[in-house]
């Protein structure tokens, strides 16, 4: 479980985040959206322990975050810079296992297992620069998963991919989440994406001093499907509600209901206009 209590963040005199209080239960996929520059990436970097919180406290499974927790992995948008071009795909993925003291053969076997899972078993001996952008981001996801993190942070991971690749990776993420039960915090500027992948969507207000303006459980019937789910009236209603909050147009009362338990069927009907 991830807990943020009255977290504030500044760059110098510039206040970015104010009084962010949030509990993310184990196994939840939380999406964070908000206007450009409101502090989504700053929030993620603070949770990751890369920036110390100026105010408040953050705990992961009860332990205060004072540096990057061992149980945590991060995937950034810029896959091109996050992979080492001189290493093969398999060695990129195996790299985090070195710190765990696994022997070389074990590291390679584990990397190949994860690569198979993300649909890249045929690419293990290639180098990142020989792959498409979508394949490189699959490598970055594989590397994040190889240490079996309990908390996965993703900062606009599909933002620079074409629409088809993006949908494929959204579905890969959902499959990983369903199978592993990893707690995931997923930052995106894409409202549709947040509702499609999230169990819950949190919207931040524009800065300075961004706060949470909407905390919305995503209750959609059935297993998510790129065509069928996006056509559901429940999906359209949720998307409109998040869109209104991002644009500062007010929040429907259903948005405040039971946000920590964002699974199951959405019942509110949301009153979308
Ligand atoms: N290292 C830094 N030093 C000073 N200011 C920064 C730094 N990083 C970000 N900022 C500023 O903090 C604010 C929040 O930035 P952040 O990248 O967290 O927003 P964001 O919501 O993720 O933006 P976007 O949606 O455009 O990616 C912006 O005004 C940005 O210019």
In brief:
The protein has 273 residues and is an alpha/beta fold. The chain has helices at 40-47, 79-82, 89-98, 104-117, 133-145, 163-180, 191-197, 233-246; strands at residues 2-11, 14-24, 29-33, 55-60, 63-64, 72-76, 151-155, 183-187, 200-204, 212-217. The chain is 32% helix and 22% strand.
Q: Any idea what the CATH architecture of the largest domain is?
A: 3-Layer(aba) Sandwich
| Total of helices | 8
| CATH structural fold name of the largest domain | Rossmann fold
| Fraction in beta strands | 15-25%
Helical content stands at 25-40%
Ends: how far apart?
36 Å
Structural class label: alpha/beta
Number of domains: 2
Give me the CATH superfamily of the largest domain.
Answer: P-loop containing nucleotide triphosphate hydrolases
Shape, please?
globular
Main beta sheet, described? 6 strands, mixed
Report what the structure shows:
This protein is α/β, with parallel strands linked by helices. The protein folds into 2 domains: 1-71 and 150-273, Rossmann fold (3-Layer(aba) Sandwich), CATH 3.40.50.300; 79-148, no CATH class. The chain contains 8 helices and 10 strands. The chain has helices spanning 40-47, 79-82, 89-98, 104-117, 133-145, 163-180, 191-197, 233-246; strands at residues 2-11, 14-24, 29-33, 55-60, 63-64, 72-76, 151-155, 183-187, 200-204, 212-217. Strands 6-7-8-3-9-10 form a 6-stranded mixed beta sheet, with helices on both faces. It has a 4-stranded antiparallel beta sheet with strand order 2-1-4-5, covered by helices on one side. Helix 3 (89-98) packs parallel to helix 5 (133-145) and helix 7 (191-197) packs across helix 8. It is globular. Mean pLDDT is 87; it is low at 252-273. Bound molecules: adenosine-5'-triphosphate (ATP). The site of adenosine-5'-triphosphate has 11 residues, from helix 1.
């Amino acid at each position: 479980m991830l807990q943020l209590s009255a977290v504030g963040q500044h760059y110098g005199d510039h206040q970015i985040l104010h009084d962010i209080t949030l509990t993310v239960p184990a196994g939840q996929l939380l999406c964070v959206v908000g206007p450009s520059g409101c502090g989504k990436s700053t929030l993620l970097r603070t949770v990751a322990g890369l920036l110390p919180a100026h105010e408040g406290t953050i705990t992961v499974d009860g332990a205060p975050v004072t540096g990057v927790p061992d149980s945590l992995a991060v995937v950034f948008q810029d896959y091109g810079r996050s992979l080492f071009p001189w290493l093969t795909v398999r060695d990129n993925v195996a790299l985090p296992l070195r710190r765990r003291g696994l022997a070389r053969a074990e590291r390679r076997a584990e990397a190949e297992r994860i690569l198979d899972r993300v649909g890249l078993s045929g690419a293990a001996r290639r180098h990142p620069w020989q792959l498409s952008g979508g394949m490189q981001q699959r490598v970055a996801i594989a590397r994040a998963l190889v240490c079996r993190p309990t908390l996965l942070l993703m900062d606009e991971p599909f933002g620079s991919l074409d629409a088809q690749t993006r949908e494929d990776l959204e579905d890969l993420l959902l499959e990983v989440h369903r199978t592993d039960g990893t707690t995931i915090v997923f930052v995106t500027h894409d409202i549709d994406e947040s509702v499609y992948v999230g169990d819950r969507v949190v919207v931040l207000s524009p800065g300075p001093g961004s706060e949470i303006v909407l905390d919305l459980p995503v209750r959609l019937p059935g297993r998510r499907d790129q065509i069928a789910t996006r056509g559901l009236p429940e999906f359209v209603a949720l998307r409109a509600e998040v869109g209104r909050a991002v644009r500062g147009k007010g929040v429907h009362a259903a948005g405040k209901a039971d946000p920590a338990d964002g699974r199951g069927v959405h019942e509110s009907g949301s009153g979308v206009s």
